[in-house]
Amino acid sequence: MKHSLALLVEDRPGVLTHISGLISRRGFNIASIAASSTEQADITRISLVVEVENKDELEQVIAQIEKLVQIVAVIDLTEEDHISRELALIKVAATPEARADISGVADIFRARVVDVHPESMVIELTGEEKKVDAFCKMMEKHGIIEIIRTGEVFLSRLPESAVQTAERERRY
Amino acid sequence: MELTGAQIVVNALKKAGVDTVFGYPGGQALPLYDALYDSGIRHILTRHEQGAVHAADGYARATGKVGVCISTSGPGATNLITGIATANMDSVPLVCITCQVPRVMIGKDSFQEADIVGITTPITKHNFLLRQVEQLPRVIAKAFHIAASGRPGPVVIDIPKNIQVEKTTHVEATEEELHMKGYRPLYAGREEDVQAVVNALRNAKKPLFFIGGGLVSANMTDAFRHLAEKTGIPVVASLMGLSGYPTREKFHLGMPGMHGTYAANMAITECDLLLGLGVRFDDRVTGEIKGFAPHAQIAHFDVDVSEINKNVHTPLRVPGDLAWSLPLFANLAEVNPQGLQAWQDQVMTWKLDHPLPYPKNATGLLKPQEVIKAIDGAKEEDAIVVTDVGQHQMWTAQYCNFQEPRSFITSGGLGTMGYGLPAAIGAQLAKPGKEVWMVSGDGSIMMNCQEIATASEYELPIKVVILNNRGLGMVRQWQRMFFGNRYSGSKHEKGTDFARLAEAMDAKGIKVEKREDLAKAITEAKNCPGPIFLDVRVEDDENVLPMVAPGATIDHMTE
């Protein structure tokens, strides 16, 4: 099962390597990982999707991450009410005859055509992972030249920051 | 006041209470060494950086203080790796200062450059690469705090040479600078977690304590001793926890696991409540995990939350420092009102009916177990015993008695051959008044035998006993048992004369080839004012028993 973890970490060089290394070294799989700056200057937020077999494994992943000195908070948003988004840029082979169909599908998915070339088009799509997957599938028949996806980022719907959630839920 | 980076380091070390450092200088470490020169801090020059880090580790294990070692950049720093990994596996507090090429040279594949922060990330509790001289006061203070608090561990500080020579007026860290957002070592947990174990204990008919290195590093061995006495619950101890409870105590059943005692393994298999204190349920203890403590509810007290429920299913979890949880548990603990008599009788039957195998009336070459028994008989009750890794290590764990915490120093988790001699040097320097014995094998001793020179240099009266079976005993045991006697790469055809090797480095060396010479040699070792090495020729093909084969459950022992 996939779990969406929000990690707040002290910003220092190599922190992303440290965390991804830790997870793979302990034998767990990373489905996606994305890092960015936050509203606090010295805090980086890492959106991590891990694949685990069961609840024990999930607890172990979280405990191992929390143990790192530079980790400020880890919040599992999987079961929380949250918004999840991924950005994808998809370059599709597009002959002039295919353009209309591609644009039509893009409209249905609320994607945008951001570039057109005589032989291809680039579509920008934002949404949950499943939506991006579904769109990519629709484009397959035209021939996908390349895809780039940012990995999921997620935010809880609660009127508080992740740090506050973590403080509230801290057990020890 | 303006100071150089190197001077700040020295001041910060003093402020952290450091009196001794172990190290080996080199190009990028020269400014730091210059500051050390007249600092009042004792610098112990080992003969190899690996010796320095293991010595700092031995110093730390003997005292509970943070051990400190220093190396130059590149190869100096990479030579520390095995020692850092050793300390990390056994939760030993170390601060390792590795010097680095100047900041502008980093990333250029400069002479003696290695990415030591990158290399040590998976084997340290934390590490730092200095970027500005102003960071030094806070980084060093944080490093000591991180190394010693919570679950202890090694911390690396990588200091580029330019930072050692740059000057700053910012020589003390402010309170604000020392604050760490992410690091909150756990102290107190939740009382209800302790209460749950108390309730389980009241209902248990066959409770068992399982103690580990965490009990020793939390300095809670006295409190535990009272608890064990008060409750009468039998005790088994991991390799790291063996000295956590006096081994001569009636209900100390010894070490469980692969080379554990019959009583310890059976007690784990039959108990109905296993109370783990500062342990990590290592595979060498559990054997086949599915058959480990099959009738027991497992309770686990540990300062490191990530250890709990990691290897074994643990319904009763008590995260928290043992300094918090153990006194609380001891206050509330009461055993089953029906008493533990039947269970105590059972474990004592196992203990008495299945003693460790011991060769009686042996003839021919000395048996290694006899040698360990002789050391145990001769050593002071509070002596520190250090080992290398292999058969001799297991025999020492089995046949030696340890009456005081921190009196048994050995590389448990990583199993580092070559650990023993430098660790003994560190332990002896830390405890000059204590007798230090080091038991090794002809394989292990060679892996850091250059440190004989260090022991001589500082006139340390370490008594080294080398069980010489002309080969790699533990490897050969496995080859005998599981590979049809095919001794691939495990024989020393031309034996080394360790007595002469010791003499070459100005230490005393004695060769012991006959049974009748052993007692005299041990007495001589005991009385020797400097380092002494006994090269004791023992039986080649002795097995460490009992043994649980890999993949078997621990109640299936070859005795």
Describe the structure.
Chain A has 172 residues and is α+β, with helices and mostly antiparallel strands. Chain A has two domains: 2-80 and 158-168, Alpha-Beta Plaits; 83-149, ACT-like. Chain A, domain 2 (Alpha-Beta Plaits, 2-Layer Sandwich), CATH 3.30.70.1150. Chain A is built from five helices and nine strands, in the order E-H-E-E-H-E-E-H-E-E-H-E-E-H. Chain A has helices at 15-25, 55-67, 99-108, 129-139, 162-169, and strands at residues 2-10, 29-37, 43-51, 71-76, 82-93, 112-117, 120-127, 144-149, 153-156. In chain A, strand 2 (29-37) and strand 3 form a beta hairpin. The mean pLDDT of chain A is 92. Chain B is built from 23 helices and 19 strands. The relative contact order of chain B is 0.11. Chain B has three domains: 3-178, Thiamin diphosphate (ThDP)-binding fold, Pyr/PP domains (Rossmann fold, 3-Layer(aba) Sandwich); 191-353, Rossmann fold; 368-537, Thiamin diphosphate (ThDP)-binding fold, Pyr/PP domains (Rossmann fold, 3-Layer(aba) Sandwich), CATH 3.40.50.970. A six-stranded parallel beta sheet of chain B has the order 3-2-4-5-7-6, sandwiched between helices. Chain B has a six-stranded parallel beta sheet with strand order 15-14-16-17-19-18, with helices on both faces. By secondary structure, chain B is α/β, with parallel strands linked by helices. The A-B interface holds A 9-10, 13-14, 17-18, 21-22, 25, 42-43, 56, 59-60, 63-64, 66-72, 171-172 and B 117-118, 121-122, 125-126, 129, 146, 180-183, 186, 189-190, 304-306, 308-310, 313, 319-320.
